[in-house]
Amino acid sequence: MVERLAVVSGGGTGIGAGVARGLVADGFDVLIVGRRAGVLDAAAERIGAEGGRPGAVRAVAADLTDPGQVDRVVEAVGGRGVDAVVNNAGGYLGGDTGTLAGTAAHWRANLDANVLTAVLLTEALRPVLRRPGGRVVLLSSIAAQRGGGGAYSAAKAALHGWAYDLATQLGREQITVNVVSPGYVAETEFFGDRMTPEGHAARVAATLVGRAGQPDDIAAAVRYLVGPAAGYVTGQVLGVNGGSVLGR
Ligand SMILES: NC(=O)c1ccc[n+]([C@@H]2O[C@H](COP(=O)([O-])OP(=O)(O)OC[C@H]3O[C@@H](n4cnc5c(N)ncnc54)[C@H](OP(=O)(O)O)[C@@H]3O)[C@@H](O)[C@H]2O)c1
Description:
Rossmann fold, single chain, NADP, Sec_Metab_Biosynth_SDR, oxidoreductase activity, alpha/beta, seven-stranded parallel sheet, globular, SDR_fam, 3-oxoacyl-[acyl-carrier protein] reductase
């Protein structure tokens, strides 16, 4: 039997690695994509071995803001049908916004990292998405729904509008497109050295369940959306945030 194939951007760390781990358990072959080859290779080996399926995870080093590098992913897919594209790469990019030039650079960096990565990867793989049954998932943030992240909030919110269009375009081919919007997730590289004990405590206190999210919490939602049970779910935003944002 030919395994289903998933492409997970940012799959070498944090939430993406959790998604890759979950999809290996669900029987997918997984291509993980990021910029750091060493991080990706180590993650691919570890996730495959831990899942009892060595070789199930392959790594492709590519900066997904660069159209020329996105072609590497298409080459690695090698003409196979792609069952799921999980657009998880992204993050909050800081910058000096004290000048207009700095503001422009800061906004472009956040839009590139969070929007262009998803658009270019999805468009590159669109011709080989499984028909019927393909799945596209976009990783947004509660920052898109309640603000607080400036350019990052705006960039994540842009994914929602694009997801609605893409879901409309691909629906007749039985391909679904959905957004997963995480709240605070610890144990990823997202906050770098920006997180403090007070910041962690405040984010936990903002949830209704009194804990930080883990990559596996977000992976569970992605596994549902790319699985066979979710074929009637498309054009939706699924919040996975411990109740820190309600019903949006
Ligand atoms: N952690 C949270 O609390 C939280 C909350 C809401 C939403 N999110 C979102 O969840 C997603 C995953 O974040 P995370 O928390 O797991 O943080 P993370 O560990 O920093 O993961 C981000 C991943 O994206 C990859 N990446 C970034 N820019 C890329 C590019 N241009 N091309 C290819 N890969 C790129 C990074 O790998 P390289 O550096 O090697 O390229 C990294 O593996 C992000 O979209 C983030 O905005 C996170």
